[in-house]
Specification:
Shape: globular
Mean pLDDT: 87
Oligomer: single chain
Strand content: over 45%
CATH architecture: Beta Barrel
CATH class: Mainly Beta
Distance between the termini: 42 Å
CATH topology: Porin
Radius of gyration: 23 Å
Order of helices and strands: HEEEEEEEEEEEEEEEEEHEEE
Amino acid sequence: MRLQLTATALLLISSGRALAEDRSEVSTSLFAEQRDGGKGGLLVVHPQALLGFDLGSVLALDLSYAADIVSGATSTVYQADAISSATKFSDVRQEGSIGIGLAGKRSKLELGATFGTERDYLTRQLGGTATIDLPGRNTSVAIAYSHSFDAVCDRDNSAAKPIEAKALTGADACAKKSGVVAKDTPGTTLWQDLAIDTAQVTVTQNVSPTMNAQVALYGQILEGFQSNPYRRVRIGANSPQEHIPDTRARWSISARLNRFLPKLHAAVHASARFYNDTWEVVAGDLELGYSQYVGNNLLLKFYVRAYQQGAASFFKDAFFYQTASTAGEYFTGDRELAPLRNGMLGAKLTLITVAGDKPVWGLFDKLSINVKGEAILLDLLPADDVASNTAGIDGQFIYGNKFVDAVVLQLGLLGTY
């Protein structure tokens, strides 16, 4: 299974990182998912570390490393037969980034580069963010852009029609030169290009001494191979590799509001987002949060999020792919392109220690330790007429079956010195 975990965007790496002090940050996240009926699941361990250095009054340097250690199982074929066997897989993704920040009195410029590698995917990304505080320092405007030069390992289907295309298996070699340069193996595998351009404009406004608001407009264009080379879809008697468009443009607009409650020594948070793309996926989400200080060193945060999306124009329930063929040229079994809704419940505990006469642990001016846990609930929705679906199921999922789809646990340590 090709990993499609999102690489850390440079426009997000740079935000808030150019601090005028040296710092280090280490954290580990655990993501665990179990599919309904025991038909697959996913376990991801995500360690990451960052070192930041103040190189003068205006210059800062960030170095970061992250990895995704992935194992799990997924159904071999997207089909109506729920007893389809599951295929086990495992992989390790590694990613390194470097960022340079230049800070003025009211402005900041941050540039960065990222390189990521795994068995069947390469990421190379360049980007930057420019931020300026308008006169009065009540309004801040940020503009960010990044470009990724990615490469995806695929089965060599150059001589086959989409309905005849074969999928990769774990046994297929995805060769690289020196581990970092893609190398085709004609007749067996070849590397497909994927270019990703991402831009974002963010405006943050202090509404009052205790409240601020933020509006962000996000856009992204993907051009190149975007199918999962391992995923097969049952279409009649055939099970070809999924086939989706090479071009996708998407955008979103989001708004966030934070209000500090001085008497309670707490804060409330609210955010909303609308999303749309050229594949006709329309989505929206709402999130509410509450943060509470306990004394001066302990911070508790609770939050809840609701999300719903419609299906891509070419997505069909597995039963209808199998009995009525495709909805045009393209076909997929990707759950991320299916109609669904999910909810998330989360909590985070942060312990903050500030140095007094002596540094914390003999080294840090400030030390933060945080523990976070999230539960994600999933409700898969039908894309086609339920009454006509005599199988009553879609692949390995039962419609309307709400369950805990995944849990996320995180332990983090942040020190400034």
